[in-house]
Amino acid sequence: MSSGNSAVRPFHLAIPVDNISRAREFYGSILGCSEGRSAEEWVDWNFYGHQLVTHLAPEQTGVAHHNPVDGHAVPVPHFGVVLTMEDWRALADRVAAAGIEFVIEPHIRFAGKPGEQATMFFYDFSGNALEFKAFADLNQLFAS
User: Fold this and answer.
1) pTM of the model as a whole
2) Residue 119: what pLDDT?
3) How far apart are CA 78 and CA 113, in angstroms?
4) 42, 75, 99, 132: least CB-packed within 10 angstroms?
């Protein structure tokens, strides 16, 4: 689906968290996202050029399901962004150094096949699943 404009526009995503201070620690300190507007119960983040909002909603947090993909149990729902390979490696190192446990360790998925990609999964401190990807060839993003 195309909007008619070839420029990628930022997405907006609002997610539940169980503690605003811990959200600031995770998204600000560990992931390195800059903070935008905020109130007592929510914070806007510059999530790699996209608008991510963490809303205090502890009753809505946690993981619901996993689906098998390329031999791994992928958490559903999840979200993330496609990074450059260099930024992906740097983020993997930063997450590991912070002691965050990977749900799916950084690795190459679909090696030698259409859609070959670097991927990793981990949870934020409220149980929201994140996936970060990178492609050696970005043209493989929508390969089938």
Assistant:
1) 0.90
2) 97
3) 23
4) 99
